[in-house]
């Protein structure tokens, strides 16, 4: 017998995750994996496999909208993908070892820590709409880390210059590794890398991150495919649900001011991060 | 219409094709008695037991599960296509450093898709 309730639960959970993911630049998975594992009792390997697939859907589905908005910086995104894809390969291989040895509790705890650690830079800068001006360095020119976009809420054209490409690249390697390890787009860390390390405006960071997570997740998910962490029915429902959610989220993004965006960000992360750590410790003991 | 628009549309079309395949797959799969087993969160069936050529063959024969899998494969392929289009874009713009950067990204992706599976298996 088919259980339509369970399918419906999956669909609703993934729509919510997709909405929040697109809105924050986190990628749906950061919200999806906790919901699936904590509330729907799905094994973490399948939850992460499905969420990787959904992350690609979010990214590719929203990309055309963002390119039209001209906020996404494709150059900066691409240059950082070198590090994220390399990190994703390493992370996926580590994840495989962890599952083979049944050490899933580690992933819950790391998941929680990753979520919570992305809180600090958000709180610190929460009052600022735009980044402080910083002097361009050698990497600004070499890697063409500049751009401008029209901010619909501030009603002005924002020009920006990114700095410290190398620092961004280091953060991105870890972002990629975490993505492969936890099956998430690792959007939070990517936003940290661009927003904190490279001093880019939050809207550029979130949209560019959303553009990047697809390529990172494709790297991880092709390895997850081989390892057998993708359950097709689960992944299929999740992909569709997250797509619906992310479509709605991308519509809402352009209308919300940055400060409010950060507050939504913080509240959700806090809750899910703590829950994941508690689950991990429970499994451990 | 510049290349950015082409890339945007290519991604969107890729996602639409993938979603259509997945939805058709579900419609064909739901009446199948095997479905409840597949739908279980603890299902043993997963991608490690699948051969890509079987997916293609099964999809043409109207096998729901294979159509879902094909949809997932198309979805994974969209970012790869995006990077390939990126290489073309930067080449046309004569942006040398970014052409090289994008080729490195493509290399990493192809490494994960084709080469590492051979080593791991």
Automatic annotation (TrEMBL), chain A:
Record GO cellular component, one term: plasma membrane
Compartments, record wording: Cell membrane
KW Nucleotide-binding (keyword) present: no
Keywords on record: Cell membrane, Membrane, Transmembrane, Transmembrane helix, Transport
Membrane topology: Multi-pass membrane protein
Primary site of residence: membrane
Keyword Transmembrane: yes
Transmembrane segments: 7-29, 35-57, 78-99, 105-123, 165-189, 223-249, 261-284
Protein family membership: Belongs to the 4-toluene sulfonate uptake permease (TSUP) (TC 2.A.102) family.
Name by which UniProt lists this protein: Probable membrane transporter protein
Lineage start: Archaea, Thermoproteota, Thermoprotei, Sulfolobales, Sulfolobaceae
From TrEMBL, chain B:
Domain of life: Archaea
Membrane-crossing segments per the record: 6-30, 67-91, 97-120
Lineage: Archaea, Thermoproteota, Thermoprotei, Sulfolobales, Sulfolobaceae
A Pfam family this chain is assigned to: DUF1634
UniProtKB keywords: Membrane, Transmembrane, Transmembrane helix
Descriptive protein name: DUF1634 domain-containing protein
InterPro entries to which the protein is assigned, alphabetical: DUF1634 (IPR012861)
């Amino acid at each position: 017998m088919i259980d339509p309730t369970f399918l419906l639960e999956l669909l609703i959970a993934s729509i919510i995750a997709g909405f929040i993911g697109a809105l924050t630049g986190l990628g749906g998975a950061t919200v999806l994996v906790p919901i699936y594992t904590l509330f729907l009792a799905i094994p973490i390997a399948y939850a992460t496999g499905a969420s990787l697939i959904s992350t690609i859907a979010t990214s590719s589905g929203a990309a055309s909208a963002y390119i039209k908005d001209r906020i996404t910086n494709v150059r900066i995104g691409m240059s950082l993908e070198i590090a994220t894809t390399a990190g994703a390969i390493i992370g996926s291989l580590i994840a495989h070892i962890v599952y083979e040895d049944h050490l899933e509790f580690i992933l819950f705890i790391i998941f929680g820590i990753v979520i919570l650690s992305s809180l600090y830079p958000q709180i610190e800068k929460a009052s600022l709409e735009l980044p402080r001006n910083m002097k361009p360095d050698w990497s600004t020119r070499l890697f063409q880390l500049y751009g401008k976009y029209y901010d619909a809420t501030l009603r002005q054209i924002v020009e920006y210059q990114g700095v410290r490409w190398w620092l961004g690249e280091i953060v991105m390697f870890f972002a990629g590794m975490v993505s492969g390890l936890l099956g998430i787009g690792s959007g939070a860390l990517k936003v940290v890398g661009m927003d904190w390390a490279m001093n880019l405006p939050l809207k550029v960071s979130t949209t560019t991150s959303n553009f990047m997570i697809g390529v990172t997740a494709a790297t991880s998910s092709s390895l997850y495919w081989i390892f057998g962490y993708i359950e097709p029915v689960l992944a299929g429902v999740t992909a569709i649900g997250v797509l619906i959610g992310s479509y709605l989220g991308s519509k809402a993004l352009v209308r919300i001011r940055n400060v409010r965006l950060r507050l939504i960000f913080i509240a959700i992360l806090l809750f899910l991060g703590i829950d994941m750590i508690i689950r991990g410790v429970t499994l451990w003991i | 219409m510049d290349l950015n628009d082409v890339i945007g549309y290519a991604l969107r079309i890729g996602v639409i094709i993938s979603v259509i395949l997945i939805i058709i797959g579900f419609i064909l799969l739901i009446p199948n008695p095997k479905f409840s087993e597949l739908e279980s969160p603890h299902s043993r069936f997963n991608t490690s037991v699948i051969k890509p050529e079987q997916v293609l063959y099964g999809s043409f024969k109207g096998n729901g599960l294979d159509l879902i899998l094909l949809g997932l494969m198309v979805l994974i392929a969209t970012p790869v296509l995006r990077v390939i289009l990126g290489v073309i874009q930067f080449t046309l713009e004569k942006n040398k450093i970014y052409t090289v950067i994008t080729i490195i990204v493509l290399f990493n992706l192809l490494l994960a898709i084709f080469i590492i599976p051979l080593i791991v298996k």
